[in-house]
Structure formats: structure tokens, C-alpha cells
Design goal:
The complex is a heterodimer of chains A (226) and B (222).
Chain A lengths: L30 E4 L8 H10 L4 E4 L4 E5 L4 H21 L3 E2 L5 E2 L5 E2 L3 E4 L1 H4 L16 E5 L6 H13 L4 E6 L4 E5 L6 E4 L3 E3 L8 E3 L9 H4 L2
Parallel strand pairs in A: 8-9
Antiparallel strand pairs in A: 1-3, 2-3, 4-7, 5-6, 7-8, 9-10, 10-11, 12-13
Chain B lengths: L15 H6 L6 E4 L8 H10 L4 E4 L4 E5 L4 H21 L3 E4 L4 E2 L5 E2 L3 E4 L1 H4 L16 E5 L6 H13 L4 E6 L4 E5 L6 E4 L3 E3 L8 E3 L13
Parallel strand pairs in B: 8-9
Antiparallel strand pairs in B: 1-3, 2-3, 4-7, 5-6, 7-8, 9-10, 10-11, 12-13
The chains are: A alpha+beta (226), B alpha+beta (222).
């Protein structure tokens, strides 16, 4: 175990840290920080907090809580990009709606959250100003979340439930670790799919098909070589 | 038999890569906007609202969020505190604080040491306005490294105590079975599993028994 490499450069004394028990390192994210009631977290403030703390993803709940999350590692980031790029290509080609990575949305329940990938219909886009660089008071129609290595499953599942309860017509939770996709629809139990090669978002459009084959961890090298 | 501490119930054991990514996540630093100036009252309110997390501030407008002290480090901290208190009471000198006391240091940081001793001389500098946060640096500080504490930030914190006026500071690391002794303007000295340690810089008779801090040896060691 090369745990010493995970330490930042020691300031003065140099010595090696031994690996610890897994129980002590249960992923703490999202970490919720309750702010005092008189600290109003305006949209501008939330965005400023985000830009001041680029090493964290920061969202807000409706009760004055900040949700602090670790950003995705390189491999999760690449998976998000793969899915987001296909969404963008379809949206551009079909001339329908738009995709907005890293956008922050204010949901009807007052939470402000940012999905990994989202598509918004023209109808919903018409409700907001396209020049608005702040938080958009709209729920995306279609949301994709990719579970990253530091994400515990249950907070991501709760986030998916929130998207569909707050107006998303479709949500996918892509879990590369479990090699599954959970499909969320309003008022339905989520549906679990095992390592689908591709998936069509029929609730959005019959031709919106996302290739997921490169999202999954590669299996035995022998299988993929001819 | 002391085994690994478990500060949170294991709801869902994370996959291995999760804790390899964030093996020692704390302290988590959150930079606040410059116009968000924390008063002492707000600082204390923030701490009270987030029970379980220990929150300090640095001089650059950052919140430092520490993980809760696990039961094991709490026990170890109390062992050191109790001995320091007994010495202070017997000798009639100074006061002892535990980790819920906040100190505003000359550099503007608000910090909470696991254990601190403050001399009568420094206590006299406290004004009547300092009822909730003391604007002084303790003379003697002890920090006990918890399982989720990254060593680097803790070492920086020790350096900070010295630079802000502490005359002596100990970093007790039960995981490494060592104590780092910090003195002003000196490189820290590492001691391997000392049975006891005397804080001669504070008083010749302030000796802390550390033998029960260290993980117990296996029976075959005798």
C-alpha cells in the first residue's frame, strides 16, 4: 500500500502514514454544513462559494444547509463527459432543447443542485433568460448522474428521487462500480439495468440513444481483442 | 483489547477505491466570501448547529471542518487532560481547557486544541469582553491525532501554535506510536512511544504518563 503518496508534501517532519482501517475512512461526502438562519445563501453567494472552493462541489438544501461534495476523479469525469457529449450531439442535431453541464438549478422545493449532465426542453428553457449566468429556476427534463468513487450510493439515490419528484421526466443513475444503470421516472420505482451497452431515453425522444459501452470498466482483455 | 475506532455507524461500507481517494479527508477547508465576516457569536452558532463536527477558522476567511473525535482519541485526550488538570490543581498554577474552548490567536485564527494549559500570567491579559472566545494563545498545547486526521495539516497546526505564542506543544500520534515535541524556533523532535514525558518548559514536575495511550502489545511480548 503506497499510502504515503496520498499525503501532501509534509511541511517539516517527514514520516510515512500507515494505511488505516476502512471503517475510519467511510466517505464523508456529501458533508452537510448547517448555516445559521441569518446567513442567507443567495444564489450569487452560492456560486461565489463554488468558485472560491474549486476543490469542492457545493450545493444547498432548503434549510440553510450546504452540501459539500468531492469532485469526480478523472475516470468519473471522463464518463460524465462521454454521456454529456452524446446528449449535446443529439440536442444539436435534433435542434431540440439544450444541455448544460455544471449548471446549478433551483428546484421547486428550494434546493439548489447541479447534475452531472442534464437536458432541458425548449419549453422549459423558454421560462428562463438564456443570458442568466446565475442559478436557473427550472428543473431539467432529463438528468444523468454518474456515481463517482467517493459517492456513497444512498445520497446519490436520494438525489435521483429528488430530480424526478421535482420535475425531471427521466433520470439515470449510472453506477460504473456496480456496472448498472438505475432508471428513474416520476411516481415509479427505479428500474435496474445490468451493464447496458446503450440506452434510449424514450421518455424524452425515441432517437435519443446513449452509447454506454465505454462507460463500463473493461473486462478481460482477451474478450475485447480479436 | 482496543480495536479500530468507528466514528460513524457503518451504513454502507464504501468500496475500496472510495477510501483510497479520500483516506484522510479532514480537515475540509471551505473558503468563505471575503464580505462574509464571521463574528464570534456566528462562529459559535455555526459550531452549535453542526454538532459532531469541529469547526475552526483560519486567518484567510476559511472554515476548517474537522471530523468528530472518535471515542479512542477522546479517551486518549482525556487521559492527558486529567493529568494536566491534577498537576495544575495541585500546584495552583494556571488553568486547563479541553477541546470545546476556542482561542482567537494573534493572527486572527480561531482554534481549538485538544488540551491546553494557560499560565496565570496569560490569563491576566483576558479582558471582560473575552467571555466566549479567549484572545490569547495557550502556553502549552497537546493535540491527539485522530484516525481521520491527515498528518500534514496537523503538523501545520502545531507550527501555528508555536508561531502564535505557545511555549510547548505535543503532537501525540497513537497510530504511529510517537510524540512530536514542538518548541519555538526548533525543529520538532520525534519520540518513539515514550512511557511518560515531562513538560520541562512549563514546569519541572509536570510529567504526563503516556503508557496507556499506546496500543497494547500482543500478549506474547509479555
Amino acid at each position: 500500500m503506497a499510502d504515503s503518496t496520498t499525503l501532501q508534501a509534509p511541511t517539516k517532519p517527514v514520516h510515512v502514514v500507515k494505511p488505516r482501517a476502512a471503517s475510519s475512512a467511510d466517505s464523508p461526502y456529501p458533508l452537510r454544513l448547517q448555516l445559521p438562519p441569518d446567513w442567507e445563501v443567495t444564489d450569487d453567494l452560492l456560486l461565489e462559494l463554488g468558485s472560491l472552493n474549486e476543490e469542492w462541489y457545493i450545493e444547498a438544501d432548503a434549510d440553510g444547509g450546504l452540501l459539500i461534495m468531492a469532485p469526480p476523479g478523472p475516470s468519473s469525469g471522463s464518463r460524465e463527459l462521454r454521456i454529456g457529449a452524446q446528449l449535446l450531439n443529439w440536442s444539436d442535431a435534433a435542434k431540440r432543447g439544450g444541455t448544460f453541464p455544471s449548471a446549478m438549478f433551483r428546484l421547486p422545493n428550494g434546493w439548489r443542485r447541479a447534475p452531472d449532465a442534464a437536458w432541458i426542453s425548449d419549453e422549459r428553457l423558454s421560462r428562463i433568460s438564456p443570458d442568466d449566468e446565475g442559478v436557473w429556476a427550472v428543473c431539467p427534463d432529463f438528468v444523468v448522474e454518474v456515481r463517482s468513487a467517493s459517492d456513497r450510493l444512498s445520497p446519490v439515490q436520494e438525489k435521483m428521487e429528488m430530480w424526478v419528484s421535482q420535475g425531471a421526466r427521466l433520470g439515470w443513475l449510472v453506477d460504473p462500480r456496480e456496472e448498472t444503470v438505475w432508471v428513474y421516472r416520476p411516481d415509479q420505482e427505479p428500474e435496474r439495468l445490468e451493464r447496458p451497452e446503450s440506452l434510449t431515453a424514450t421518455e424524452i425522444a425515441e432517437d435519443l440513444t446513449i452509447d454506454l459501452s465505454k462507460v463500463w470498466p473493461q473486462r478481460d482483455q482477451a474478450e475485447s481483442t480479436t | 483489547m482496543v480495536t479500530a475506532e468507528s466514528p460513524r455507524p457503518a451504513v454502507e461500507l464504501p468500496a475500496r477505491e472510495a477510501w483510497e481517494l479520500a483516506p484522510d479527508a479532514f480537515p475540509l477547508r471551505l473558503q468563505l466570501p471575503p464580505d462574509w465576516e464571521l463574528t464570534d457569536e456566528q462562529f459559535l452558532e455555526l459550531g452549535a448547529l453542526n454538532e459532531g463536527w469541529r469547526i475552526e477558522t483560519d486567518a484567510a476567511g476559511g472554515l476548517l471542518i474537522m471530523s468528530p473525535t472518535g471515542p479512542l482519541s477522546s479517551v486518549q485526550g482525556v487521559r492527558i487532560l486529567a493529568q494536566t488538570l491534577a498537576w495544575s490543581d495541585a500546584g495552583g498554577s494556571g488553568v486547563v481547557c479541553e477541546s470545546s474552548a476556542t482561542f482567537m490567536l494573534p493572527n486572527g485564527e480561531r482554534r481549538m486544541p485538544d488540551a491546553a494549559w494557560i499560565s496565570d500570567e496569560r490569563l491576566e491579559t483576558i479582558s471582560d469582553d473575552d467571555l466566549i472566545i479567549w484572545r490569547l494563545c495557550p502556553d502549552f498545547v497537546v493535540e491527539v491525532r485522530a484516525a481521520s486526521d491527515r498528518l500534514g495539516p496537523l503538523q501545520e497546526k502545531m507550527e501555528m501554535w508555536l508561531s502564535q505564542g505557545a511555549r510547548l506543544a505535543w503532537l501525540v500520534d497513537p497510530h504511529e506510536e510517537s510524540v512530536w515535541v514542538y518548541l519555538p524556533d526548533q525543529e520538532p523532535e520525534r519520540l518513539e512511544r515514550p512511557e511518560s514525558l515531562t513538560a520541562t518548559e512549563i514546569a519541572d514536575d509536570l510529567t504526563i504518563d503516556l503508557s496507556r495511550i499506546w496500543p497494547q502489545s500482543e500478549p506474547e511480548h509479555g
